[in-house]
Amino acid sequence: MKVLGIMGSPRVKGKCSRLLDKALEGAESAGAEINNIKLIKKNIKYCMDCANCWSKNHELTIGKCPLKDDMADILEEYINSDGYIYASPVYDMYVTALMKTFLERKIALTFRNMNDHAKLPESRHPENFLKKASIIITGNCGDEFVEVMGDPCFEACEAHLMIEQIDTVDRMYAGGVESYTEAAFETRLKQAFDCGVRLVEAIRQARA
Ligand SMILES: Cc1cc2nc3c(=O)[nH]c(=O)nc-3n(C[C@H](O)[C@H](O)[C@H](O)COP(=O)(O)O)c2cc1C
Predict the structure, then answer these.
(1) Which of 138, 151, 172 to mutate to test the pocket of ligand 1 (most atoms within 8 A of CB)?
(2) Domain residues for 187?
(3) pTM
């Protein structure tokens, strides 16, 4: 089983990154093979809405995009994974531009026959999904702001997941992240580790 981390913070040694590393460590301890894509290290161009990827070649799993960058390889890695841990800091009450750019380009996975757009066949109900995701969001605003700061970010990450047939296991909001003591951060790291373990267990359970 493969679990893929998608790191949306520009700070590769920041709190968000450390939480994701810990969650992946948890997934690995539960038996998963892990990989971590740090978006800041990749060349990911903006979606130009040419519609090529979702309106043509419906037999393909990944729609063809005319942009030449790292996204084709990333999407290949993405569809070959069984579990996902998305991680992003909140920037201006939303995911980072880095994460949003990646999410938009993921439309290449969601193209479908136009007549199917409004339908939700039996296999597309979350309880039947064989792939799972967890989401880690960090913000300077405290935990009591989870609805204002965390929820828009969780929803941004989840925007395509229903169509990709991926269900969410954990939504973790780490608020007040810049003012943690090391001891308080340890508690969050433990929480992230447990998220990783739970993700693997949930995938196993779905496939049992
Ligand atoms: C441009 C910018 C906008 C931000 N906007 C918010 C915000 O709307 N709400 C919030 O709680 N924190 C906000 N923050 C704080 C970051 O979320 C926080 O520094 C980050 O989660 C720490 O993670 P990192 O160590 O990976 O950078 C913002 C930070 C930056 C740089």
Answers:
(1) 138
(2) 2-207
(3) 0.95
List, for residues 155-174, the tens digit of each pLDDT value.
Answer: 999 998 988 889 999 999 99
16 vs 96: CA distance, rounded Å: 12
The CA 175 to ligand 1 mean position distance, Å, reads: 10
Q: Report yes or no: 176 and 143 within 8 Å, Cβ to Cβ.
A: yes
Number of domains in the chain: 1
Instruction: Report the CATH number that the domain containing residue 49 is assigned in CATH.
Output: 3.40.50.360
Residues forming a β-bridge with 86: 6, 135
Over 90: is that where the pLDDT of 122 sits?
Answer: no
Tally of CA atoms within 13 A in the half-sphere of 18 that contains its CB: 14
